[in-house]
Write a structure and sequence with these properties.
The complex is a heterotrimer. Chain A is of the alpha/beta class. Helix content of chain A is about 40%, strand content about 15%. Chain A folds into 2 domains: about 200 residues, Response regulator (Rossmann fold), CATH 3.40.50; about 170 residues, 3-Layer(aba) Sandwich (Rossmann fold). Classes of the chains: A alpha/beta, B mainly alpha, C mainly alpha. Chains B and C meet through helix 4, helix 9 and helix 11 of B and helix 7, helix 12, helix 15 and helix 18 of C.
């Protein structure tokens, strides 16, 4: 990793603890140093297995290749949570330790890493996963390994749809997810669409399951809501992942003359698309642009943002809800890294706190007890209050949609106003009733 | 549909121009050195980062930054050639060994770029002097894209003049067609190889630097573009500069029109085109002539 | 490309035992089964060598015995290794078959395929589709043993499908050579990748891929999970062992000999009236067949098939393995597959390295290409000879002589490194040929895998090089 901006901060905070609280924290600091403590961050490698005094969690994320920024963001959240939890005395008095692994966005590697974490490092539970394909591959493996996983990013609805309800469904009782999934997110887009004065809709999304599913769910929800939209198929386009030039696609969309465009492009692809769309006068010709991953990893940077006045979504928003938890997380994160937390940072951060709470409530790290506690668990984190569905393991969360506006205070675009669109499971299910798509929650 | 036709053609040419700038260096190096440089894509990526980083340091002047960045990439290329590729020329399967070696170089450079610049994509605005639109036959295109098309034509013509009208150009072509003969006639072949590799890398850097205002730049930029470049040079003819131009423009136009008329399955088409060319005209559409 | 200079101008070598180059059953192919260049040693230590060799054989240290020991080790893997390591070793066995099959074309026929992932994916998808489409049907007919029957059907169908694809693809590809061959095979695999990920006919579930669970068989009243780790390991061991043996037989058949001759010099072989393209085509199909076997059995291990199986990065796996391990040894690619997989595993044990594992792969590739042209297998062979010599010295001259032997090797090695460094800095315009010969020859081949300092004791003095495989008759040039 290029930057570990936290290291200094960590030492500072511990020093403060040591002077304020006499000998005890100091001794703990020595303990940390003595165990190597993964270069002071708790990210140690070969220390797993000692169930007696350490809770070990495995975290497979994408750490290399074209989507590595997701893993880097997650790592920030992990560092912060590990520090805070251990500062507060750990989980039931035990140190928490996280082992990060690279899935390479490759299902085979993801499976190997999950197996290695459970069988070699003896982790008590897993959290993480960015790629949907890796998630769908790992889900059955978790059932075989009999260890729970809390997914913090991978967005396919099929991973929390119980296996059997659909050809592609791969959910089982070991799989949980605390970020909102594509279906919940797109439900928010459909609600926004209902409020907008636009009937001709089209879509741009990456040419793989995520892009295609986003459009399919959008059509299904808006049909279910009887919005009477016109879906302009001539404009629907799915550019190859990691394209260098979107102008032909922009041209295709514009020549279909839609009033509104739904986008599921993310990361580098979204930035390139927006650059080129601005050059082509796209945002003048299209009335509404809804970016379902519009406030993703590019959130913290000034030059990458969408133009002002566009609709964008995120799975977590640092300014909503305006709760003490969210405010504290945002401020601590800002102090530590001098940037706003992205949803992947918050997801990783919250997964650790969720495990702390669940393990303490269950009083053990035994799988059965964890599963029982996690199903139907009510939890509060920066993202707000949420419940983990009893049936599917999916967190019942509102989706977040808002309009982009530049903020001098934060040096980046923010969402103003921002809406939290509630998505009750039974409502999603009834809206999808006329299709075979699962609600996944 | 006339306006659409004009629009698609302009888009196609501008994509083709960018593809040519990445492909021409690859083809030049192959034509002269017989090296298929897998690291050419990461050199392109370095050119883009060079332009962004250096221009941020130098008064926010994109052109100055791009120029310095391009030269830096050329030097990196020359070092790679001198230090790593040169020891392999005389092996029997040199071309395959060099392909794999440059694959290793690409992995290393990608990781170093990630350590240096992070994985987060970067983006810079279009240089102010070219940040306006131009109308052509009722369609508009940004001046910067026209500029890129213009640069690709200038590079094509410039290289052609250099190779056909200058002494150095003659020497390069002579060496490309018969290295031993050139060596016997007193050509310093190793030095010439390094020079050509440097020139090819400069072109990759140029392509990357000019691409920076058009798209997001991330360390993975080179991974995708190198496969596109392979498609272009194979269709045009490996080692042929005019072939690279024709290949780039064909692929660019195909991408521009394909999106309009082909709903799905377009991902496979460049590779099918590549197979057809390799089967029926293995040396490419224009690959008969050495280098030119 | 032919060299500027005559092959062996480097002073450290006087004669090349070229005659033994293509006779793998010559004097001693070594424990690793030398493919092209037989490791022939002469000069230094001749008598001691013969003593050592004969004593070792007398004491039963034959190639067969070493192989037997390895087989015993393989059989014991599930007993002695922890569960995850059994999984990893299963994966290694299949990657070894993948890489060795690839090398039938590369090392033995001279064709570098950058698209062998095509056959890997084709077979993998065939087994996944068979289980999805035929599994329920067969279950209705056969009941409890149906998963086993489905597996058998899937293997047959998968290999048939691989052959059906390989025959035309090979036919079109082998007409091209060198880089053109690499590029056309790349195109075929990428076109297949595009079809898999875009899934125009709704067959393969696009980018999500298809889950593949083998199921449970009822045998003699007991339930047996086919994917049970140890059971599946033994199944793969049998399949991989059989495949490796079959490939060994192929390259040592008259057909294999012709192919090796083609690699050395297509023109000369062609002049003898042999149909070069036909032989290359057949070898292509054979190679694809064994790649198909690897793909068939890796799919149930991973429990999923995805389009990534056909992406060019998967094609790069056997290429990297063959380069690291040594393409001129039969077992070189297998050694390389071992390094490939276990290096990745080892790096993942260290959080600081995990995110940058690609950096280490790049470095290893470059180091091997520049300094260990024959790969890790050559290093292992050299290490084996050195150990034999050491043993010989110990048996004839006693312990202090053995220590002295180790010391002299180390100092010779250090001197060689100093020479190498000196030469690099003054290399200038000098032909790279001498460089290659020295670097590739036994004199400098250490053991890159183990990172050990041991080297062939003859280094620097008389020629003890294995024949340099990079030195081919100039007729071997390809246009």
């Amino acid at each position: 990793m290029g930057v570990h901006p936290s290291t200094d901060g960590v030492e500072d905070r511990r020093s403060v603890g040591a002077t304020g609280g006499a000998g005890v924290p100091l001794r703990r600091r020595h303990f940390l140093t003595a165990t190597g403590a993964g270069a002071a961050l708790g990210l140690a490698g070969c220390l797993g297995g000692d169930d007696d005094d350490v809770v070990t969690l495995g975290a497979p994320y994408i750490l290399s290749g074209f989507a590595a920024m997701y893993g880097e963001e997650a790592e920030y959240g992990v560092e912060l949570a590990v520090d805070q939890i251990n500062e507060e005395g750990g989980i039931d008095g035990q140190e928490v330790e996280v082992i990060l692994r690279d899935t390479e966005a490759d299902p085979d590697t993801g499976i190997r890493q999950a197996r290695s974490l459970v069988e070699e490092d003896d982790v008590d539970a897993l959290f993480g996963l960015d790629s949907s394909a890796v998630g769908l591959a790992v889900a059955p493996v978790m059932e075989e390994l009999q260890v729970p996983i809390v997914i913090t990013h991978a967005a396919t609805p099929f991973i929390t749809a119980p296996a059997g309800v659909h050809d592609r469904a791969a959910g089982n009782e070991y799989v949980f997810r605390i970020s909102n999934h594509l279906g919940q997110n797109v439900h928010g887009a459909a609600v926004v669409a209902g409020d907008l004065d636009a009937t001709r809709w089209t879509n741009v999304g990456p040419d793989y399951a995520f892009g295609h599913d986003t459009w399919e769910y959008f059509v299904a929800y808006t049909e279910g809501m009887d919005l009477g939209l016109e879906y302009v198929e001539d404009g629907v386009t799915f550019p190859e992942l990691a394209s260098d030039d979107y102008t032909p696609h922009i041209e295709r969309i514009l020549s279909a003359e839609p009033e509104a465009v739904l986008s599921s492009l993310w990361g580098t692809d979204l930035v390139t698309f927006v650059d080129q769309a601005e050059d082509a006068g796209f945002f003048e010709e299209v009335d509404h642009f809804l970016a379902s991953v519009g406030m993703g990893t590019e959130l913290p940077t000034e030059e990458l943002a969408l133009p002002e006045g566009q609709w964008a979504s995120s799975r977590y928003w640092p300014f909503a809800p305006d709760s003490p938890e969210n405010q504290e997380f945002r401020e601590t994160y800002w102090d530590e890294y001098e940037r706003l937390p992205t949803y992947n940072a918050e997801g990783a951060y919250r997964a650790l706190w969720l495990y702390k709470d669940v393990i303490e409530e269950a009083g053990t790290t035994e799988t059965d007890a964890l599963l029982e506690t996690l199903h139907g668990y009510e939890h509060t984190g920066p993202v707000g209050e949420y419940t983990i569905s009893e049936e599917t393991g999916q967190a019942i969360l509102p989706s977040i949609w808002g309009v982009t506006e530049y903020s001098d205070e934060w040096g980046t675009h923010v969402l103003e106003p921002v809406h939290r669109v509630d998505a009750p499971p039974d409502e999603l299910a009834s809206l999808l009733d006329h299709t075979d798509l699962p609600a996944g929650v | 549909m006339f306006p659409l036709f004009v629009a698609e053609t302009l888009i196609g040419l501008s994509i083709g121009g960018r593809l040519f700038l990445i492909a021409v260096g690859l083809s030049l190096i192959f034509g002269v050195l017989n090296v298929l440089n897998f690291a050419h894509g990461v050199f392109y990526m370095l050119g883009a980062y060079g332009a962004i980083t250096v221009s941020a340091l130098l008064l926010d002047n994109f052109w100055l930054g791009a120029a310095v960045g391009i030269v830096a990439v050329g030097i990196v290329g020359a070092i790679v050639e001198f230090g790593l590729i040169r020891p392999l020329y005389d092996r029997d399967e040199a071309i395959l060994d060099q392909l794999i070696l440059t694959f290793g170089v690409a992995m290393i450079v990608h990781e170093l770029a990630r350590m240096l610049w992070g994985s987060q994509p970067r983006s810079i605005p279009t240089p102010g002097s070219l940040d306006f639109s131009v109308g052509i036959l009722g369609e508009t295109i940004t001046a910067y894209r026209l500029f890129v098309i213009g640069v690709s034509v200038v590079v094509l013509v410039g290289l052609w003049l250099f190779l056909t009208r200058t002494h150095h150009g003659h020497v390069i072509r002579a060496t490309a067609s018969d290295r031993e003969m050139a060596a016997m006639l007193g050509v310093d072949v190793p030095r010439l190889y390094t020079t050509v590799f440097l020139l090819g890398s400069l072109l990759a850097g140029l392509g990357g630097a000019l691409a920076a205002p058009l798209q997001a730049v991330s360390p993975a930029l080179g991974d995708q573009i190198i496969i596109d470049a392979f498609v272009v040079v194979v269709i045009g003819g490996l080692g042929s500069i005019s072939g690279a131009f024709v290949g780039a423009m064909l692929v660019g136009l195909f991408q521009a029109f394909g999106v309009q008329y082909i709903a799905a399955g377009d991902l496979a088409l460049p590779f099918i085109a590549m197979i057809l060319v390799l089967v029926f005209r293995p040396r490419g559409l224009l690959g008969e002539d050495e280098v030119l | 490309m032919s060299g500027d200079d005559e092959p062996t101008t480097d002073g450290s070598r006087d004669d090349e035992p070229t005659a033994d180059r293509s006779t793998p059953d010559g004097p001693d192919p070594g424990a690793l089964g030398v493919a092209g260049p037989a490791v022939e040693r002469a000069g230094h230590g001749h008598e001691r060598l013969s003593f050592t060799r004969s004593r070792l054989i007398e004491e039963g240290w034959t190639r067969e015995r070493l192989l037997g020991l390895f087989v015993v080790w393989c059989l014991l893997v599930p007993v002695v290794l922890p569960s995850f390591q059994v999984y990893l070793f299963t994966e290694f066995l299949l990657l070894a078959v993948f890489a060795t099959a690839f090398n039938l074309l590369y090392g033995y026929t001279g064709l570098l395929s950058f698209g062998h992932a095509l056959f890997y994916a084709a077979a993998g998808y065939a087994i996944a589709l068979t289980f999805r489409e035929l599994g329920p049907e067969l279950a209705g007919v056969l009941g409890g043993i149906s998963p086993l029957a489905t597996l058998l059907v899937a293997v047959v169908l998968g290999l048939a499908f691989t052959l059906v694809i390989a025959a035309p693809v090979g036919y079109l590809s082998v007409r091209l050579d060198e880089i053109y061959f690499a590029l056309i095979t790349l195109s075929f695999s990428m076109a297949f990748y595009a079809v898999l990920i875009q899934d125009p006919y709704g067959l393969t579930q696009g980018s999500d891929g298809m889950l593949l669970l083998l199921g449970t068989v009822e045998l003699f009243g007991a339930d047996v999970a086919l994917a049970d780790r140890n059971l599946y390991y033994y199944l793969v061991l049998a399949v991989a062992g059989g495949s490796m043996y079959a490939m060994w037989r192929v390259i040592n058949s008259p057909f294999g000999t012709v192919c090796r001759a083609i690699r050395e010099s297509p023109d000369r072989v062609s002049a003898l009236g042999v149909n070069v393209t036909y032989h290359q085509w057949v070898m292509f199909v054979v190679s694809a067949f064994f790649v198909g076997i690897a793909g068939l059995f890796i799919a149930p291990l991973h429990s999923i098939v995805t389009p990534a199986m056909s992406f060019w990065t998967t094609s790069a796996i056997p290429v990297v393995a063959a380069v690291i391990g040594g393409a001129f040894y039969f077992l070189g690619p297998a050694v390389g597959a071992f390094v490939f997989l276990y290096l990745r595993w080892g790096l993942s044990r260290y959080p600081a390295f995990e995110a940058h594992w690609e950096l280490f792969y790049g470095l290893v590739l470059i180091l091997v290409l520049l300094y260990f042209k024959e790969g890790a297998a050559a290093g292992l062979v050299a290490l084996g000879h050195w150990l034999e010599d050491l043993y010989g010295v110990y048996r004839t001259d006693g312990r202090s002589a053995a220590i002295e032997f180790v010391r002299s090797t180390l100092s010779e090695k250090a001197a060689a490194v100093r020479r190498e460094v000196g030469r690099t800095s003054v290399r200038g315009r000098r032909s790279a040929r001498g460089q290659v010969a020295t670097a590739g020859g036994g004199s400098d081949s250490t053991d890159p895998g183990g990172g050990s300092d041991s080297t062939d004791p003859g280094s620097g003095s008389d020629s003890t090089d294995p024949t340099d495989p990079t030195d081919r008759p100039s007729g071997g040039d390809r246009p």
